[in-house]
Amino acid sequence: MKNRPAVIIPLDGSKTATAALGAAQAMTMTMDAVLHIVYVSEDAIEEKELLQTLKVDHLEVKDFTVQTITGATVVDAILKFAASVETEMIVMSSHGWTYNTQHLLGSNTMGVVERAIDPVMVISPSSTARPGPDWRPNKILVPQDGSPTSAAVIDRVFRLAELMSADIDILNIGVLGTKPPSEAGTITVPRYLDYPRYDWPAWSREFVERFYKHLPPGVELNIFEREGDPADVMIKFAAENGNDFIAFGWHGHLENERAIIVKNLIRKTDVPLIFIWSR
Prior knowledge:
279 residues; 30% helix; Rossmann fold; 9 helices
């Protein structure tokens, strides 16, 4: 199993945490990876007893490990373990034992998505369509605004698409009355969102040439543009176009008034979300 892609799912013994187990198994099989089920504890527990503790009664994957890990905190232990294997993705339920619908994410999930350098897929236990082990995603939705920061995640998205044999939909969302991104190097979208986009093809070509030179063979890339509230537009687009999950770059901060779009996505969507650290 050495040098094979790794998918990690941390569990804490709650049924809420196992809401992500189907997606973790699906990702493992889709990417021909090894599934690592981890439990943070000071005491080692044998595999059979640990599976019972974690409420795992059946696994579809053939290649997996189940183990206790230790660290200063739960989050530290998970991230340290992720750094020790060929991690392609961490899959977590949005909540564990302390499930509270008033909180967007549980404290441990929050800590992992804020600090992990690997993509983190978050599954809501209240989702009406939680992925099972037979889930085979084939289309990724990636919101972009033309800025270098948002485009910095695309190599990781390309890697996931290649492993999953999935295609990519790039969605640029215009919001009327707002200023375009001011980051140096941004390719600003055509300005008039309420008029026919005669310059849209030229913008798309430049966008692809600048940011998407390394598209893997066999992965299809399509670019779309919409306008409106970003979270609502993404959710509607994903439903209409059959996108299996939404992958986005972010700066790793959910506190106070930051990451408003991300927070709205967490609140509103049933589609799995993949957080990709873009700092």
